[in-house]
Design a protein that fits this description.
single chain; alpha/beta; Rossmann fold; five-stranded parallel beta sheet; 4 helices; globular
């Protein structure tokens, strides 16, 4: 595929969920490319520790201990936040959005208060 048909993803969080997302995207890269018409590649992952136990291995060449390296990398088009919580997660996603990158946090963790009248889940 041509370079213009490539979407580079940076992830913040490489624990249980992050390593699973990395594994799934690596395993299904060809299928996704054929269906989407673009190659989806993870290019950088911010982790808490390089030696953290993970269900799926992440090669060291993908990892950094600094989440800002992921957000500020000019090769990253989309930032996926998988660290949990709301305070630092909000900071991370807003930093990505300020740089014009698409940012995503799982829907179970909102970076803003619920809309008026919204039903709160417990």
């Amino acid at each position: 595929m041509k370079k213009a048909n490539r979407v580079n993803i940076g992830m913040i969080g490489g624990g249980t969920v992050g390593s699973g997302v990395f594994h799934a995207l690596q395993k299904n890269a060809a299928l996704m490319a054929s269906r989407l018409g673009v190659t989806v590649s993870i290019v950088k992952i911010a982790v808490k520790a390089f030696d953290e136990p993970r269900p799926y291995p992440i090669p060291p060449s993908f990892m950094t201990l600094n989440w800002q390296e992921v957000v500020n990398d000019p090769n990253v088009h989309i930032v996926i936040e998988l660290v949990g919580g709301t305070t630092i997660a909000k900071t991370m996603v807003l930093a990505a959005l300020k740089l014009g990158k698409a940012g995503h946090s799982p829907p179970t963790r909102r970076c803003s208060p619920p809309m008026p009248g919204a039903v709160r889940r417990r």
